[in-house]
User: Fold these one by one.
Assistant:
Number 1:
Amino acid sequence: MSMELILAELRSLPGVLELAPQPGSEHPELSWGDHFFYYAPDGAVPQNRQPYATIVTKDYPDDTASRLSDPDRWRLNIHTGPRLFTELVGSAPEDIDAETVDYGETDVFLPHPLYGAYGWVAVVNPGERTTARTIAALRDAHDADRQRVERRRASGS
């Protein structure tokens, strides 16, 4: 599955806001070329919550295990929560032994190298094995973010 197909799928979701820092923007140079997705129908980047999905195209100083500095590698990250995380990865977030995970393996659901304990999964270069489930997980993450936003609005917080 190409990054463009995933981007098209994410962009088609109602109320989605994509933050895609580019050269010359006010965002840190390290983030240029990456993508961050929120449910934000008002078009404003949320200041009080994390995105529900990201696409990263390079290693970050504290996040090199996926080997994204190698050619033609990128990683999709999805906040799934513990139930879906367990379904996709095969173990609960608290049961992952980070020492045994090959975070650079492609086209498989893995715990996120840094945020797996918080219910984030990662897929390096999603492909044939993960395509259908990846799209469903992205839709679930989008819907969960929408529900959080709507609950906060309803409660006035």
Number 2:
Amino acid sequence: MGDVVPQAPGVVHGLVVVIGAVVEHVGWLVVAAGSVLIIWTASAAWWRRRAVRELGRRARFELVPAVTFDPQMGDIGQAAARLDGARAAAGGVPRRAGAVRIRVWAGPESQLHYGWEGPQRAAGVLRMPGYRQVEVRPADAARRTSTQVRFEGVSPQAGGW
């Protein structure tokens, strides 16, 4: 049987063949690795610029509840499902730009206001009312800036909390 089936070359011989092929083609391997690195870097930079552009043009909506607003558990579930659907409606935006933010603040009439902010592509989903007895309206420019709260006569605590 030994003369019918040729014997496999030794491990050392196979290693010598592989090393010889690598040395013979080292120039092409360096060019290929460099090309992959350049393409990866360019695509990462493009993806980052796209995320920054999408973050710059987010849709903002205010949800102003009525005085008699009392959400039921089913309403909360429906609103959460709608916010979850906004990510899918945004399509292929980068992950960091596809998130939906929920903001809460007190309005000038001491009434709580809620805000939904998300990708511009998902504006149609965010515009839809999530709760009964809640008015959905585009956010005004004044709410885009944050207001600092200052307490007179109170010194800040060491360590934050």
Number 3:
Amino acid sequence: MAEYKDLEPRHLVVSYVRLPKELALIRLASSRASLFEENERRHQKKARYWWVSLGALIVGLGLSTVALLLHT
């Protein structure tokens, strides 16, 4: 199972507490955007695996149906 990235709350408090509000918000938005992009790649990879699994399931069901029809 893939680990998804998220922000570290303690790091944010320590790093951004003394910054001006505007700068802190810019840095927060920037770090959230980069994490979102990294997690998006993981979501796409997971979706591809899901489609491959679904295709394999459909092929397996089709072949088992044909086998049952030919057997009887």
Number 4:
Amino acid sequence: MPPRRRWLINADGEAWNTWDAEPTRGATCRVAHRMVCPCLAPEDPWPWGTALREENGRRAQRLFNLPDLRELPDAS
């Protein structure tokens, strides 16, 4: 689970989010129900990474699936 999606519980019961910090060993950690519920569509924890992966896929498609030059009309 990405650190920003985890909530730590203090000894007094207060919940707080550490953002990018890893919890200390033995810390009580909780996650939101929507992150693990099988009845809900999964939330994308890294939307920028998903967008970058999709763009890289489009670029690879354009770069490596070039048209066959024999099928193009002669420009001369």
